[in-house]
Input
Amino acid sequence: MSAPEWDLLEKTELGIERVELDDADLTTVAATVADVLGVGHDEVLVIDARDDLLALDILRRTIDPGAIVGKREALLAALDALPGVRVSDETDLCSEGMLGWIGADAAQATAALERSREMVAEIERTIASRAIVFSTGPEVIAGQIRDTNKPWIVDRLQRNDFRATPGEDLPDDRDAIAAALREAIEERGFSLVITTGGVGAEGKDGTIEALLAVDPEAATPAIFEVEAGHGRHVKALIRVGVGKVGDALIGCLPGPHLEAQLGTEALLEGLARGAGKREIADGIAARLRERLRQTHGASHR
Output
């Protein structure tokens, strides 16, 4: 596994002060710097060479700090070996931001990097365990029915080591649900978002459409087929959905309580296997289709 790279935050200039140049080949100079820093030859460009200053630009947004830390002496030695380049005891590097690690003490900087990586890993673990559960439908919002799905799913996730939070009740509105999904992931930092309800075939059911609005490539397998245009059915399929936004997973489950339970278990099994969104969605759909075969039909909201 490759080491994570850190953002250079637009501090990409590397200066070499008090270096003597005499008919030096700047293309070779740039390639030598690239080799020492472990980046591509096309990612280092000499942008200034005058008097006793050599300035280079690192043409990338991120870099592995472990690959550059403490490389000052190696870099100066490599330059000194080039024709037309002379390095003295007074030659030094000047840079800001991440590139400053080049001149850092190797042992101290490596220890600092390791501590930073441990902190980043802990933050990532915390984010990866954060989950939120939304229920949808005016009957839930108005308190006409007791929402048994949300507390059950939250408890089930907590027993599976998630830091699960009950979310707000959402109206049967595609745009409102899509906005809640985006906010949960992009602003509130949840890595797992589960919704229940709104996956049916009626015109008011918009959860799957909301999922597709935030992830057009979401997996939305059917669990039941109905006759579109018959009764309140305006769509031919009742579907579940699993999508991703960045590293966050979204699972859209039916409203009936037993189906929400079965869907949650199948979702957790897929996550435990490290499955992708399509495999997880297919696993949920298969579990629910089997349930429908056993009961010869079920109500959906």
Q: What stands out?
A: Residues 6-114 form a domain with the Alpha-Beta Plaits fold (CATH 3.30.70). The chain has two domains: 6-114, 129-295.
